[in-house]
Amino acid sequence: MTEGVVPEGVATGGVVPAAARGETRIADRVVAKVAAQAAREALRQDGGSTALPGGAVARPRATVDVREQSARVRVALELAYPSDIGAQCGAVRRQVAERVRELVGMEVPHVAVDVERLHSAHLKGGAPGRVT
To answer: DSSP class of residue 54?
Structure first.
């Protein structure tokens, strides 16, 4: 737009056409951060906690593949064991899809959840090894 030139329709109080307004682009990393935060929320709401045995805190990580107004999300989690893993993964899928749609305005047709590690409170000394 040239300085001092008013887009057509503005001077008469009309609506500015979409092409004259520009566009908003949300970076993939922002969508991934929203998804990771939503996963943390889901784990807290599901009666679980993001705290693992030994006081460590689980920080879900998310990666996204954004195409136009749609995002495919992959979330990597660490969960406490024993727990209802299926219920927690389902809660994460629902919360991620809802929050990304709500906060970013993108549809989320697919949320993959990878459980990378299970942490047991029954391990001796909190070290990796056999469950006692």
So the answer is: G
Is residue 98 classed as helix, strand or coil in its secondary structure?
helix
The C-alpha atoms of residue 76 and residue 5 are separated, in whole angstroms, by 50
Residue 51 to residue 97: CA distance in whole angstroms: 23
Predicted confidence (pLDDT) per residue in 30-44, tens digit: 999 999 999 999 998
Nearest to 74 by CA among 91, 86, 62, 85: 62
Q: For 50, which DSSP code?
A: S
Number of residues in the chain: 132
Predicted TM-score of the model (pTM): 0.72
Distances (CA, A) of 65 to 24, 36, 72, 109: 17, 14, 5, 11
Q: How far apart are CA 61 and CA 114, in angstroms?
A: 10
69-83 burial, b if ≥16 CB within 10 A, otherwise e?
eebebbbbbbbbbeb
87 vs 82: CA distance, rounded Å: 12
